[in-house]
Amino acid sequence: MRIQAALVEATGGPFTLRDIDIEPPRADEILVRVTAAGICHTDLTTRSMWPEQLTPMVLGHEGTGVVEAVGADVTTIAPGDTVCLSFRSCGACPSCADGHPGYCAAFQGLNVSGGRGDGTSPLSRDGSSVFGGFFGQSSFATYAIAYESNTVKVPADLPPEVAAPLGCSVQTGAGAVRNVLRPEPGTSLVVFGTGAVGMSAIMASVALGCSPVVAVDPVASRRALAGELGAKATVDPSAVEDVAATIREATGGGAHFAVDTTAVPAVINQAIGALRPMGSLALAGIGAPEAALDVMSVIGKGLTVSGVIEGDARPADFLPWLIDRYREGKLPVDRLVTSYPFTEIETAAQAALSRQAIKPVVTFG
């Protein structure tokens, strides 16, 4: 079947719309007509460093849409279902069996190998393979192939612009709080970086009763929105001499919990400095290959530092919780979204890179 996709045709290149072909779903696959897809920092980082030998490539891992067809072995999803797409997992390794599919032993092959995991791709152009299978979906296209492990049924009346980001950025930020830090009501929490992941962490913290919630970001408009979403205090890190001391004062001796979404080593150490003894830090940002941590503070204050992939969430269980909070008005994801037609996907990508848009979402007419 002929579809339209946004290809990355060379490492670091722009998204370019091209007509390509997609295979019918195999026995374990699901064909989804994509209605919206969020643009995530991971998409933009990946295209800047994706190996040349694995181009052209279709990215996109925050898709939502309507199921068109399913393979013979698919039992939980049916044609006509409205679905949200997330990351793929094997379902059989120890991490998956324990309810932590974000740490699936086969994560790399199933999500970022350029194909299905067996070396093949359902996508092609003029008879030559187009790499895909990104997070088990490659949803920067009018149609995508997905799997039961990363396809979650959602209400048909859920706006596509809201549904799309749930599968990664919202899940990551909210999950870092609810699934990893697990704060009690009344405890303090600080979020460093207020992109879509950070804003989602703020909204989840407020929904769970944390107080005060503090947001740290140099962009004034984002600090203002964080305040509207429930942050009791905001900090401009470029305007204070000591970020950690400012947060300790705002939280009465240090925050109980912190979430870093920046992956900037200096900021991670500010988070460590902002915590009170026995505090916990969740690292939800991806980017820095290594960081020199203030280990003596971690040891001396008895801190817990946890890495977080995909909010340590099982999408089939967690996305309904997110949708319920959205319905209650406690997770207003729509406040983060700027919509663009799919034909303007590169404009949307540049808006994300320039921080003009918190969560760009491309929609398919």
Task: Give a description of the structure.
The chain folds into 2 domains: 2-153 and 332-363, Quinone Oxidoreductase, Chain A, domain 1; 173-309, Rossmann fold (3-Layer(aba) Sandwich). It is built from 11 helices and 18 strands. It has helices at residues 41-49, 94-97, 107-111, 160-181, 196-207, 220-228, 243-250, 265-274, 295-300, 315-327, 345-353; strands at 2-8, 15-22, 29-38, 57-58, 63-70, 82-85, 123-125, 128-130, 143-147, 151-153, 189-192, 213-216, 233-235, 255-260, 275-283, 304-307, 337-341, 359-363. The two termini are 18 Å apart. The model has no long low-confidence stretch (mean pLDDT 97).
